[in-house]
């Protein structure tokens, strides 16, 4: 009872402190909100929406079930998850955070994976997409496309390593898991057909449901992006970021890393985009040291992404704690892989090139959209988002009228 009361007091105090901070720094809060809104409007929504819609349709048509049976002999021995986990892994890597959590939750709701399997699966199917690693971080911040090779290798190798580690999660249930034999292509086709027949929704209804579900999820994601953009800005102006950075300097010095990386690292724990940008501006650090810290925050993925994942998982019985634990592991493993691969990969093949941290990055204004100069399609992002939101409103209104009349 006392613990519950203390939690209530803590939550109420935090919310009140947040409200007072917004009043104390109105201009900074609005600036941070616009920055988060721009990122969601022009980049996150148009890039994730197609993946979400297509994945919903693939589940409804039975394609995911088909892929699951084909990949069962690969995914089960390595990661102790069903073959459908291979689909979640591929889509998560292609589309980025938090697509892996969205698909895992969907598979759990469909009953295609158990609770423990879902907790294993979500721990290694959420990763940064290649566009962000190469386009935004490597080219946009560090002006060095070759650096993206190291960051991507460390990030995705770290992700696979986390999956291999998390296979031991829920080890007590290992005896109850059945080992399936190699399934034939005909069996997979039969399962695909049965799944489609079982989901007897017309194509129009299925497409409408996919749009509705995807837009609702992306609206939630947008809210978290804006919220944590504001929180990060307020923490900086309240000197809280500097306070934690001061304490973290000792850890950096222990690993022989520059103390100047402490503030960018703390910022990156909340939002990986701003953290990566700030890291690229630290002239006191070598490119390798910058890459190590960048890999760490990319693996941890920031509290903003973790809040998005927690919100998605809350719709199911999937526990969030294994995911959070896996993110800590991923961060340190990715940083270790960056250190390990630096000499044999980067210095061997690209060491003679001009270091990227000598190129000024002053044109990357904090309030501007960082992806706009790297991706041509981002110019159409706002238009795509507005059109899809209008379609969502039309579908929602028609369903409300239909429900009222029936």
From TrEMBL:
Database matches in InterPro entries: Gate_dom (IPR011642), Spore_IM_YlbJ (IPR014226)
Highest taxon of source: Bacteria
Residues in Nucleoside transporter/FeoB GTPase Gate domain copies: 44-137, 218-314
Transmembrane segments: 48-71, 78-97, 147-170, 206-228, 261-279, 291-312, 324-342, 377-397
UniProt keyword list: Membrane, Transmembrane, Transmembrane helix
Name listed for the protein in its UniProt record: Sporulation integral membrane protein YlbJ
Top-level taxonomy: Bacteria, Bacillati, Bacillota, Bacilli, Bacillales
């Amino acid at each position: 009872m006392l613990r519950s009361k203390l939690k209530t007091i803590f939550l109420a105090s935090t919310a009140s402190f947040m409200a007072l901070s917004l009043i104390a720094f109105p201009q900074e809060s609005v600036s941070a909100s616009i920055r988060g809104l721009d990122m969601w409007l022009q980049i996150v929504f148009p890039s994730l929406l197609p993946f979400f819609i297509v994945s919903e349709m693939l589940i409804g048509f039975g394609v995911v079930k088909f892929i699951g049976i084909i990949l069962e002999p690969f995914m089960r021995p390595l990661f102790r998850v069903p073959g459908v986990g291979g689909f979640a892994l591929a889509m998560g890597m292609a589309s980025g955070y938090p697509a892996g959590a969205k698909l895992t939750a969907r598979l759990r709701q469909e009953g295609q994976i158990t609770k423990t399997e879902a907790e294993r699966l979500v721990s290694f199917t959420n990763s940064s997409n290649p566009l962000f690693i190469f386009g935004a971080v490597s080219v946009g911040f560090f002006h060095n496309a070759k650096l993206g090779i190291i960051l991507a290798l460390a990030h995705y190798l770290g992700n696979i390593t986390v999956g291999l580690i998390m296979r031991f999660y829920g080890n007590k249930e290992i005896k109850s898991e059945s080992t399936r034999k190699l399934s034939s292509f005909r069996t997979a086709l039969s399962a695909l057909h049965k799944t489609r027949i079982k989901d007897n929704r017309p194509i129009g209804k299925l497409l409408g449901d996919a749009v509705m579900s995807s837009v609702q999820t992306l609206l939630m994601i947008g809210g978290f992006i804006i919220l944590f953009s504001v929180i990060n800005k307020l923490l900086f102006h309240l000197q809280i970021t500097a306070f934690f950075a001061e304490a973290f300097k000792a850890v950096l010095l222990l690993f022989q890393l520059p103390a100047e990386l402490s503030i960018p690292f703390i910022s990156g724990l909340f939002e990986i985009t701003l953290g990566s940008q700030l890291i690229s501006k630290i002239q006191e650090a070598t490119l390798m040291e910058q890459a190590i810290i960048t890999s760490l925050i990319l693996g941890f993925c920031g509290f903003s992404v973790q809040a998005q994942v927690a919100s998605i998982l809350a719709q199911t019985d999937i526990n969030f704690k294994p995911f959070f634990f896996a993110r800590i592991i991923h961060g340190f493993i990715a940083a270790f892989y960056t250190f390990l691969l630096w000499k044999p990969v980067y210095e061997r093949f690209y060491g003679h090139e001009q270091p990227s941290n000598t190129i000024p990055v002053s044109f990357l204004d904090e309030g501007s959209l960082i992806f706009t100069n790297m991706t041509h399609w981002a110019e159409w992002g706002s238009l795509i988002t507005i059109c899809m939101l209008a379609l969502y409103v039309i579908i929602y209104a028609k369903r409300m009228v239909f429900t009222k009349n029936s």
